[in-house]
Amino acid sequence: MADVNRGNRPLSPHIMIYRPQMTSVSSIMVRFSGLGVFAVAILIVWWLLAASTSESGFVAIDGFLRSGFGDILLTVATWALWYHTLGRLRHVLWDFGYCLDVKVAEKLGLGMFIGATLLTVITVLVV
């Protein structure tokens, strides 16, 4: 039977006292960025379908995507795409057994935020 001596075991960290680490925050952000990219991909598919089917439908979705809000949405989606890509590359490094040290993993997490931001600025300026 399992050891039932619960007095000597540490308690799990509680949500109110647990301090998020860079590795956990970057991992969660990779998942959120993937969901965001998927949501924007639906808008892009809608735009393509409207372009191939209906002029009035295309004008509506194209107007939305070219509006100020659409520009912000597509810029954030570009950041999310770059961030998600860098997160996947980080996991490839980890799969090969590289950069598994905690300090290096934290630097990679910070590098993902900085890298995604720089790549988004370059993408917005070039495109």
UniProtKB/TrEMBL annotation:
Gene Ontology terms: biological process: tricarboxylic acid cycle
UniProt binding sites for heme: H84
InterPro entries: SQR/QFR_C/D, Succ_DH_cytb556, SuccDH_FuR_B_TM-su
Transmembrane portions of the chain: 28-49, 69-87, 108-126
Obligatory cofactor(s): heme
Keywords: Heme, Iron, Membrane, Metal-binding, Transmembrane, Transmembrane helix
MF-aspect GO terms: electron transfer activity; metal ion binding
Protein name: Succinate dehydrogenase cytochrome b556 subunit
Species this protein is from: Ruegeria profundi
Origin organism lineage: Bacteria, Pseudomonadati, Pseudomonadota, Alphaproteobacteria, Rhodobacterales
